[in-house]
């Protein structure tokens, strides 16, 4: 499958710039929040509360959020959420300047940022196919560029910047993220309007939400695509919750912030590479086989991280894991955006993301509990086992045969043929 960047519309460039700027701010906060929490407590369970809080909005409102996005103007939803998050970050910034930070405040901010992210991410996922005319080649090309830029900004540049800005003052990284949200809001507001979703006046919000969830659960391919990040999030959040302690206590990075930021950068560097080679892997192996391979790579890489004797081996393991994640996050969403009808895109995307986010708090608390009860390496070994087991279970659900059958079924005329509450029409269940 070849890509042609000349076909990408001008509006995509603005969307890419907006998400890149916002991702840079996210990377700053991603490094700063756990380090800020670490200045308040060394309790793994308290750190887990902050980590899990950002995922709870998806658990509580995921499917309903998708139904609302399928009713709302998607471009407007994106810029309003970015503007709201810019204003929100003023609160912890002020608290940091006044030396009034607390774990409870950090958890509340993480929750509200997650709520804004729920609506923004769902709207962006639904908006992109409209912007690109649902062309599968352009979607893969666009997702590769978006994922690559997001990884470079939020992982490669953002964490070291967040660690460095934190040395200037506890409020500085939070203010930097607020500025990034404000700039992103301005750019998104300038994007071309997309067709507004067709209103479903005769159906309640709850009924529409159930229709989106049913569409995912009754389709083996979509369910397999959703289960991968769900199980993955249990594993990755278990790792993320204790990673700062693991780096300080087992890898010898010391109590400074720079070493931890470099570990996150190593993971992001791998993610950038993975996003860049995703299309090649899909062409060479087939999308289904490529997804199975990247899942196995992630599990083996976390196993290597758990056994790492020093920061250099740990950084290499995180880079390999990041490569697997980067490729997965291009191939999976591109396939979903190609085969799901436009009027269900918001609900299907939010249902899939909700499954992943529902698993994330469990992973965060699992990581905190295992570290407290056993050793800080234990959550890493448990995460590797989960990832490898998930690879085996979902391999047939996202096989090449299923993917090819779904792509054949996703003819342009088929969009209007899918009933709102019925099962998805697919060829050749295997």
Tag the structure with descriptive keywords.
430 residues, mainly alpha, Growth Hormone, Chain: A, 16 helices, 77% helix, globular, disordered N terminus, membrane
Quick structural overview:
This protein is mainly α and 430 residues long. It contains 16 helices and no strands.
Number of strands: 0
CATH homologous superfamily classification: MFS general substrate transporter like domains
The CATH class turns out to be Mainly Alpha
Structural class: mainly alpha
Spatial shape: globular
**Unreliable parts:** 1-6, 413-430
Helix/strand order, N-terminal first:
HHHHHHHHHHHHHHHH
Helix content: over 70%
Mean pLDDT: 82
Cα distance, first to last residue? 24 Å
Strand content: under 5%
Please summarize the sheet with the most strands.
none
- Examine the coordinates and then state which fold CATH places here, giving the name of the CATH topology: Growth Hormone, Chain: A
Q: Could you say how many structural domains there are in total? A: 1
| Rg calculated over all Cα atoms | 21 Å
Helix segment count? 16
CATH architecture: Up-down Bundle
Explain what you see.
By secondary structure, the chain is mainly alpha-helical. It has a single domain, classed as MFS general substrate transporter like domains (Growth Hormone, Chain: A), CATH 1.20.1250. It is 77% helix and 0% strand. It is built from 16 helices and no strands. It has helices spanning 10-40, 44-53, 56-69, 74-88, 90-97, 103-131, 136-166, 172-189, 205-217, 220-249, 258-285, 287-306, 311-339, 345-373, 378-394, 400-409. Helix 1 runs antiparallel to helix 8 (172-189) and helix 11 packs antiparallel against helix 12. The longest helix is centred in the N-terminal third of the chain and has 31 residues, at 10-40. The chain is globular and about 55 Å long. 59% of the residues are buried. Mean pLDDT is 82; it is low at 1-6 and 413-430. It is found in: Cell membrane.
């Amino acid at each position: 499958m070849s890509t042609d960047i000349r076909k990408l519309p001008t509006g995509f460039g603005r969307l890419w710039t907006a998400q890149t700027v916002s991702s840079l701010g996210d990377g700053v906060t991603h490094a700063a929040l756990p380090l800020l929490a670490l200045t308040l407590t060394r309790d793994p369970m308290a750190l887990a509360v902050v980590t899990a809080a950002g995922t709870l909005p998806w658990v509580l409102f995921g499917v309903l959020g998708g139904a609302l996005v399928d009713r709302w103007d998607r471009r407007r939803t994106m810029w309003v959420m970015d503007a709201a998050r810019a204003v929100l970050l003023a609160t912890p910034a002020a608290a940091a300047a006044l030396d009034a930070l607390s774990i409870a405040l950090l958890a509340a901010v993480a929750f509200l940022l997650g709520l804004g992210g729920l609506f923004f991410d769902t709207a962006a996922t639904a908006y992109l196919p409209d912007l690109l005319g649902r062309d599968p080649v352009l979607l893969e090309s666009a997702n590769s560029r978006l994922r690559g830029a997001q990884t470079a900004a939020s992982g490669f540049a953002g964490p070291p910047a967040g660690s460095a800005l934190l040395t200037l003052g506890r409020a500085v990284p939070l203010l930097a993220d607020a500025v990034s949200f404000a700039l992103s809001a301005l750019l998104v507001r300038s994007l071309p309007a997309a067709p507004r979703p067709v209103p479903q006046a005769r159906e309640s919000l709850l009924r529409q939400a159930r229709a989106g969830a049913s569409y995912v659960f009754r389709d083996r391919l979509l369910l397999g695509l959703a289960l991968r990040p769900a199980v993955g999030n249990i594993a990755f959040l278990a790792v993320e919750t204790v990673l700062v302690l693991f780096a300080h206590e087992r890898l010898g990075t010391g109590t400074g912030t720079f070493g931890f930021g470099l570990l996150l950068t190593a993971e992001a560097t791998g993610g950038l590479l993975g996003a860049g080679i995703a299309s090649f892997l899909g062409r060479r192996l087939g999308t289904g086989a490529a997804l199975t391979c990247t899942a196995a790579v992630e599990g083996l890489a976390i196993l290597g991280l758990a056994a790492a004797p020093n920061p250099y081996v740990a950084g290499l393991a995180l880079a390999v894991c990041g490569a697997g994640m980067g490729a997965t996050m291009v191939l999976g969403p591109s396939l979903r955006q190609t085969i799901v009808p436009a009027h269900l895109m918001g609900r299907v995307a939010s249902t899939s993301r909700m499954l992943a986010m529902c698993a994330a708090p469990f992973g965060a608390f699992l990581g905190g509990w295992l570290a407290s009860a056993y050793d800080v390496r234990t959550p890493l070994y448990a995460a590797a086992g989960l990832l490898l087991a998930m690879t085996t279970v979902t391999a047939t659900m996202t096989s090449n045969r299923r993917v090819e059958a779904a792509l054949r079924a996703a003819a342009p005329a088929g969009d209007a043929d899918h009933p709102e509450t019925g099962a998805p029409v697919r060829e050749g269940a295997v």
